[in-house]
Amino acid sequence: PVIYEYVTTYSNDNVKSTGKTVSHFSTYTPPLIDFPYFPVPDNSWAAGNLLSREMYQVQNDDSTLVKKIENTYEEGAHVFTIKGLSCARDKIFFFTDPGINDFIVKNYVVQSKFVYLKETKIYDYEQNNGAISLQTTITNSFDTAGTHLFPVSVETTTSISSDMLKKEFKYVADVPSTGVFAVMKNLNMIGLPVETITSVIKSGSEYVTGYEKTEYFEWQPNKIYPKYVYVGKIPINTAKNDFMSDLGNYTRLRAQINAYGNTGTPTETEVPGDRPQAVVIDSKINRVVASATEASAGQIAYTGFESTDFGGWIVNAGTSTLTAYANLNLSHTFETMVLSSGQTINYSYSVTRSSGPNPVLVFFKEGATPIEKLLSGISGNGSVNLTAGSWNVSLQYDLNVTALEVEASYQYVSPNQPSIATAQFKTGQRSLQLGMSQTIQKTNLPSGKYTLAYYQKGGTVTVTATGGASVLSTVTSPADPDGWSKVQKEINISSGSQGIQITGTTSIYLDELRLCPTGSFMTTTSYDTFGNVITTTDVNLRSQFIEYDERRRVKLVRNHEGDILRHYDYELAIN
Question: Which of 49, 143, 414, 520 has the fewest CB atoms in 10 Å of its CB?
Answer without folding.
Answer: 414
